[in-house]
Specification:
CATH topology of the domain at 23-70 and 81-223 and 292-334: Replication Fork Single-Stranded DNA Binding Protein
Helix content: 25-40%
Shape: globular
CATH architecture of the domain at 23-70 and 81-223 and 292-334: Alpha-Beta Complex
Strand content: 15-25%
CATH class of the domain at 23-70 and 81-223 and 292-334: Alpha Beta
CATH superfamily of the domain at 23-70 and 81-223 and 292-334: Replication Fork Single-Stranded Dna Binding Protein
Number of helices: 9
Radius of gyration: 21 Å
Distance between the termini: 69 Å
Number of strands: 9
Length: 335
């Protein structure tokens, strides 16, 4: 039998795990849930560059496809949803989107197409310079992760397209803070009034010391792992079953992808959303985050139809200028 100390330790671990889940699912507590600020309030963020120096941007894009099922065979009878990774995260053809794209040419299938279209979120990191939240147990490492939906990401990207912007917002000496302001519109949280600071400011000595002490996160480590050929076949089978209105079959699919709460056979560590996560590395422990209540699902779905990926920017001494020029060039072509 476990000792009293062991029982207390186990209960404390369970309580901490629950708090991590409330904070968004990162086991290390690093994710800052900006969507929990009260309506009419705001928080100020200072973004940092990606720990992966080959990433031309200071964010990474996560794209998943949500497959609804009419219950679970042998279990839950209400609708459940399984999230699977979209292959376009790796600049490869996604077999599900290949089948869904033609649906938008038929008005009777357009709503169905939106249901199965990829849902995009964007992962950043940086400092919370002014918090609109009271956190009982903030992490020791002040470098936080931020998950932004398409609306906020659009505001971030718009600044990079501004010809008057001379430096990247992540510049440690001449960067800009980003203020996230939460309002409401049509019954959904709205962030249209979020904006960049007008004045540049350097990182503080404490912030620079934190970067030296903890290092930067390699953001791609928080993305799901690339599906294997077998997993792609499973994804296609699940997609077809979902469209046909069938129930989720745990005997066939739980070893690969599953809805929250469904246990799978013993295998590599899996994410809360049901798909496998990258193998552990020297980076701080990463956990897949729960999906935040984004600023209007309908708007996010519409925004996600612009699926033209930004092309990679060259690295080098003029990296900042190259990134800005590359994004502005893409904007001109799509105007």
């Amino acid at each position: 039998m476990a000792s009293l100390a062991e029982i207390r330790a186990r209960l404390q671990a369970q309580e901490n795990k629950g708090k991590d889940r409330e904070g968004g699912g990162f086991g290390d507590g690093s994710m800052y849930p900006h969507w929990n600020i009260n309506e009419g309030e705001s928080c100020s963020i200072r973004f940092l560059e990606d720990g992966d120096s080959t990433n031309p941007f200071f964010w990474v894009e996560k794209a998943v496809i949500k497959l609804p099922f009419n219950g679970i065979i042998g279990g839950e009878q209400k609708q459940v949803v399984v999230a699977v990774p979209c292959m376009e995260m790796w600049n490869e053809t996604c077999p599900i989107l290949t089948e869904v794209r033609p649906w938008f040419k038929d008005p009777s299938l357009e709503d169905m197409g939106r249901k199965y279209w990829k849902k995009r979120t964007y992962l950043f990191q940086g400092f919370v310079r002014e918090s609109g939240l009271k956190e009982d147990s903030p992490p020791e490492n002040p470098i936080r992760k931020f998950i932004l939906g398409p609306q906020l990401h659009g505001i971030v990207k718009a600044a990079l397209l501004d010809p008057d912007l001379d430096n990247l917002p992540t510049d440690r000496d001449s960067g800009l803070d980003f203020r996230v302001t939460k309002t409401s519109k049509g019954g959904f949280a709205n962030y249209d009034t979020s904006k960049w600071a007008r004045k540049e400011s350097p990182l503080t000595d404490a912030e620079r010391a934190a970067i030296d002490q903890y290092g930067l996160f390699d953001l791609k480590q928080s993305l799901p792992k690339k599906p294997s050929s077998i997993e792609l076949s499973v994804m296609q089978e699940m997609f077809e079953a979902s469209v046909d209105g069938k129930a989720y079959d745990p005997d066939k699919w739980s070893a690969y992808f599953r809805p929250p709460g469904v246990q799978g056979p013993a295998r590599s560590e899996s994410s809360k959303e049901g798909f496998s996560t990258p193998a552990p590395s020297q980076q701080p422990k990463q956990e897949s985050s729960s999906t935040p209540p984004w600023e209007g699902d309908a708007k996010a779905a519409a925004d996600s139809l612009d699926d033209s990926p930004l092309q990679s920017a060259p690295a080098g001494e003029d990296k900042a200028k190259a990134i800005l020029d590359m994004i502005r060039s893409r904007q001109t072509k799509t105007a």
